[in-house]
Amino acid sequence: MGETRTIDAGATKITVRPHLEVPMRDGVLLAADAYHGIEDKPRPALVALSPYGKELQAAALTMPPQRRPSPLWDGCIEAGDLSRVVAEGYVHVIGDLRGSGASGGEHIGNYNAGGVPLGHDAYDFIEWVAAQPWCDGNVGMIGISYYGSMQVLAAAERPPSLKAIFVSGGHFDFYETTYHGGIMWFMPRAAREGRGGDSGWAFTEGVKSRMIETCTPEELEQRVAERLADPDVVAWPNLVHVLHYPKQHEAWFDIITNPLDGPWYEERNPINLAANIDIPVHLQIDQGRGWTVDGHIELFHTLKGPKKLDIGSYPPMQSRPWVEEHEKMFRWYEYWLKGVDNGIMDEPAVRTFVEGSREVVTAQQWPPKPVEHRPLYLRPRRTLAPEPEPLGPEHAAPDGFYQAPLTVTDEVEVVRWSTAPFDEPVEMIGTGAAHLFVEIDQDDTNLILRMWDEAPDGRRQLITTGYLKASHRELDERSNEGDPHHPHTRAVPVEPGRIEEYVLRLYPFAATFLPGHTLIAELSCNEPLADAHNALLPPDAFHLPVGRPVTHKIYRDAHHPSRLVLPHTA
């Protein structure tokens, strides 16, 4: 334990209690720093837990917030506006998870650390904080992304002193965090290893690969061989390197060797655990990060206690240090931790910002309005129309594109279809689908669809995205016309030359297409590595490209009704 000291953070004087030692039930000590006002009195506490290093979070005291694509934007400074937390009358307690920072123990795998679920550690940490003389026994949690996921894991264990949580931008379905529609996404490596300017996890000797720890040498050799047989993986030298030398890339190695959903992802899936949560939960997420919007909505539907869902506006990423949403967070905690009846629970449970109209829609449920899923059919001359194509494939020849591997070209081929300009506002809120009849000449490819709102002056706003690895095309029993779901539990190679129907899930969105605007759908099997939208996302926010040359034919005729199915509000 370090010496308590006082620092001057502008208008706020802060007492700092550094290097606290927090005992876990198995004797491991976690490290924490606590910040509070200089008055000697107990306060409610807001706890932040991650493997990013507690000292990094103190940058919030000295660094002005940075927005993407600033090179100073560090995605790991996520524990909140430290001086603001103290000024609002809380103790801000920032802890290092097991196997990271100054904490003891081992961190193995994703949400399981050395055989101990991280929720168990969070329980012990929260109850220790509540018992300290500088805490009044009321605890909430704070922080986005990883910190947000930890809040759900903690609440699922039901620590008695945890009275409410405020979750922003968390990652819940861990498979969907790492494989969008079965297509590997590189961002988790940036968060783990500090690529692209992120600080990454605070390394210790106690961080290990779950696969290496739990698989036999024979099983591990087979997993590596299977991944090295994938043309997409073998065409990306960095992945080949990790598969051969996993020691410094243990988390990324585990992700690469688990391309299918299953026990490794489901063991501590926060969505599965959320049914145990009975305390109040406020969920917040901004549009443009489809997979996490989907996760927040799924979590909202799973929760049984008092709850709120707030879907904010584009752009997708908050600043770092994180300072947004604090007004809402303090209202939430004023009610649940301080007992102030500020009326927040009299307000609708769901709040949704609608792009285009820039209106806010409120309701008690998601979607916030009744929805009718209507089709927009792909038609000749790269158009989208409400009526299906009347001609057969002999007259309505397929569209298509050939994509060479990025090892031999810098060009990403894109085929696009667009509506006529809208005559009147058209509002859509909810989840959609793209039903595409595609023939390829290989046994696999990626299908990436991005939907845009284009203004008359040519400016474009990304509305939603959909991803599907062709070999993951199987649907499960939850699926319907406008709300498809894929189990991702096995890969079924495509028969080259066969026309297959692929159904892409279009992540939830809320947008009004204004008069004069057009809706554009773009289909590719790769995405541009330098991209205006991806520049607003975390480092390395692109997907593993197709490593083989592929010809795609998209049929959209009377026998093959390729279409978008979109959630029109009533």
Automatic annotation (TrEMBL):
GO molecular function (one): dipeptidyl-peptidase activity
Membrane-crossing segments per the record: none
Alphabetized UniProt keyword annotations: Hydrolase
InterPro entries (UniProt xref): AB_hydrolase_fold, CocE/Ser_esterase, Galactose-bd-like_sf, Xaa-Pro-like_dom, Xaa-Pro_dipept_C, Xaa-Pro_dipeptidyl-ppase/CocE
Record domain Xaa-Pro dipeptidyl-peptidase C-terminal: where: 330-565
Top-level taxonomic group: Bacteria
PANTHER family hit by this protein: COCE_NOND FAMILY, PUTATIVE (AFU_ORTHOLOGUE AFUA_7G00600)-RELATED, PEPTIDASE S9 PROLYL OLIGOPEPTIDASE
Protein name: CocE/NonD family hydrolase
Organism in which the protein naturally occurs: Saccharopolyspora rhizosphaerae
